Amino acid sequence: MVDGSQEPRNQIDTKRAVSAIAAATGHHAEYVGPGEAAEFRAKLASTAPAARLLSLGSAGANRNLLLLLTAGENILAIDDDVLCETWTPGGQGDSLAVTGHRQARIITRFFPTRTAAFDAAHRHPANLLAAHEQLLGRELAVLIGGSPHADLSEACSHVRTGLLKNQPLNVTATFSGIAGDAGTYCPYRLLFAPVPLRDQLCADGATFATAMASREVIRIAASAIVTHDCSCMATCMGLSNRTVLPPFPPRGRNEDGVFGIMLAASRPSTLFGHIPVGVLHDSARPSRRLANRIVSATESRLSDLLISVVRLCPSTTGQEPGAWTLSMSRVLAGLGSMTRGALVDLVTDLTLEERRREMAHTDEAASDPRCPDFWRAALTEYRAQLASSISRPDFPLPCEFHDAGGGRSGFQALQTFLASFGELAEGWTALWETARTMNTAHRVA
Questions:
Q1: 246/265 same-domain check
Q2: pLDDT tens per residue, range 189-223
Q3: 444 within domain boundaries
Q4: What is the pLDDT of residues 402-420, one digit of tens each?
Q5: Which residues lie across from 178 on neighbouring strands?
Q6: How many Å separate Cα 358 from the centre of its chain?
């Protein structure tokens, strides 16, 4: 249990809960709070100086510590607001679907309340670990050979070529379905959803209205799915941590989305799995979203910038998994050593270029005669808000750094972060290898 809470009282209560669970179940359970994290960091630092950059607190920082604590193992990472009451879509059988980049075969339904979403999730006792293990860390060719009903009709060219050339294509991350809080940032991002979901929303105005007003969903794979789509939501996520994975950004939200893109970039052989078993996501957030607030069009986020930076990083096809992370660290270090004016110009260019693509997308979609009026109205709202926001001087600066004073101070804080993340990425493979050696010795002992 990695505890990133800041209040001592919460840390004490969580530690007691972990001890109580260990005593009641007889399973080995470890609590890792600030003290335990500092001790682990000190052990790593003797051979891996980048350990000083590790911390607790943000979701990304906590997940980095988890990757090191479990280096050399397969893991299932579950957020603290998840209830492991398992459910299934029903009728999935033992089929396997191999898909490309469109999030095909994912069932998504929208609900006005959490109770309604929970009630729609058909409870079914399932071994969550075993369900992830059916896909996690396994080669696609082996999965196809072992499935009586493998459907490759929607596989992308990358996967088809890899299979034809007998290239090792491995499932490195797996995801459970969820019922409850969708965990998404802004409902207007649905305007950029892949075709299957977009068609579903365009078909019915009532469904679209619910999706825009409420965060409650059920989302689950119709059957076991292996895909080349790197969309990553870490609410209940399995990771094959037997070889080094890239680190999570230790600041900002959507750090799991950035991680998924980094993972795909660092390993061309990486595939992602979705299992037809769900859990309940019972967050403290209200079901109803704030009306008339298009946050994704009013601000920029660190994750958006980092995704653009990932695209600047050259491919390392055929090299060791850690080679791309090292290449990424050099790009980040370069950003960290730029003059302030050059960094501001680059961040502004990257941000505006991405937003221009969004505006072009909204224009194209709205001009389609098949576009329903309610969808066209939302596109128009989004474009108007973005056009108004994009002219603000502080718009390109990620919102995570606005509290640093804005303007010059904000960009200085951003540059400090980029340099620090670059340093962590540079030392990450050494950190991971040291941690794996320590973990092996600990298990033997």
A1: yes
A2: 999 998 889 999 999 999 999 999 999 999 999 99
A3: no
A4: 988 768 899 999 999 999 9
A5: 219, 279
A6: 21
Amino acid, res. 292: N
Same domain for 178 and 257, yes or no, is: yes
- Residue 148 tokens read as 């009586």
Same domain? 282 vs 346: no
Domain that holds residue 39: 1-69
Residue 131 shares a structural domain with residue 268: yes
pTM over 0.90: yes
Instruction: Verify that 104 and 235 share a domain, yes or no.
Output: yes
Same domain, 402 and 274: no
Can you give the chain as a three-state secondary structure string?
CECCCCCHHHHHHHHHHHHHHHHHHCCCCCCECHHHHHHHHHHHHCCCHHHHHCCCCCHHHHHHHHHHHCCCEEEEEECCCEEEEEECCCCCCCCEEEECCCCCCEEEEEECCHHHHHHHCCECCCCHHHHHHCCCCCEHHHHHHHCCCEEEEECCHHHHHHHHCCCCCEEEEEEEEEEEECCCCCHHHHHHCCHHHHHHHHCCHHHHHHHHHECEEEEEECCEEEECCCCCCCCEEEEEECCCCCCCCCCCCCHHHHHHHHHHHHCCCEEEEEEEEEEEECCCCCCECCCCCCHHHHCCCHHHHHHHHHHHCCCCCCCCHHHHHHHHHHHHHHHHCCCHHHHHHHHHHHHHHHHHHHHHHHHHHHHCCCCCHHHHHHHHHHHHHHHHHCCCCCCCCCHHHHHHCCHHHHHHHHHHHHHHHHHHHHHHHHHHHHHHHHHHHHHHC
